[in-house]
Design goal:
single chain; 223 residues; mainly alpha; 74% helix; 0% strand; elongated
């Protein structure tokens, strides 16, 4: 009889979805993981006794266990964090768990992918190479005997190669002074290698500390 009114269902159906997304973001910002920056400087013992922000404390313990390359402890802490966090935070926390376990089990490709999904800068190519090398030299717990034997042989080969390079440098430096004996060259070469590795480790720790300071507030803002 009258003019048919246009169906307003598609427009009205968008409103609850938008409101739900906005509500979810607010809940996640105010969720349990928002306490992560506050707990960063606490010791492991203090985090273990934390009850008010249990999920955030267990998340930090899991990340620290991953940095120690202890996948079993990291998985246990993250599972406890998943049980204590809100449902809206679980997808992000699972991605954090995936990244940490990839680091603990020396899986650089999965670590890079997980970090990108978290919206964080992935490790550099050098860091991924070092992690891949660590996976060969020091396999994850539960690796086969053959894999562990291969790691020991590779480690010995790297040590011999470094000593040989140091010996060559010592011979080159001592050449204008008449050269140096074999044992003296090996000793000086070993000292050169130790000094170079110490400097590299110092710079690496400083860069890691800067990276942690820069991304300290990211988990709370992404959650």
């Amino acid at each position: 009889m009258g003019t048919a009114r246009p169906d307003a269902t598609p427009h009205s159906a968008k409103l609850p979805a938008v409101a739900k997304q906005r509500q979810t973001k607010v809940q996640m910002r105010a969720g349990t993981l928002s306490a992560l920056p506050q707990l960063e400087d606490r010791t492991d013992e203090q985090l273990m006794s934390e009850s008010k922000h249990r999920a955030a404390a267990r998340t930090l313990l899991g990340a620290r266990a991953a940095e120690r390359y202890d996948p079993q402890a990291a998985r246990r802490y993250f599972n406890e964090a998943l049980a204590a966090c809100t449902p809206q935070e679980r997808p992000y926390l699972r991605q954090m768990m995936k990244a940490s376990l990839a680091q603990a089990e020396r899986r650089p490709d999965e670590l890079k992918e997980a970090m990108e999904k978290l919206g964080q800068a992935p490790p550099s190519s050098r860091q991924l190479f070092i992690l891949r090398l660590m996976g060969l030299v020091s396999p994850a717990p539960g690796a086969s005997i053959l894999t562990r034997a291969r790691g020991i042989a590779l480690l010995l080969g790297i040590v011999i190669l470094l000593i040989a390079i140091g010996y060559g440098l010592a011979e080159l430096v001592a050449l204008p002074f008449g050269g140096v004996g074999f044992l003296g060259g090996v000793l000086i070469g070993l000292l050169i290698v130790i000094a170079v590795l110490g400097v590299l480790a110092l710079f690496g720790r400083r860069r890691q500390a800067k990276a942690k300071a820069a991304s300290r507030a990211q988990p709370a803002s992404k959650a």
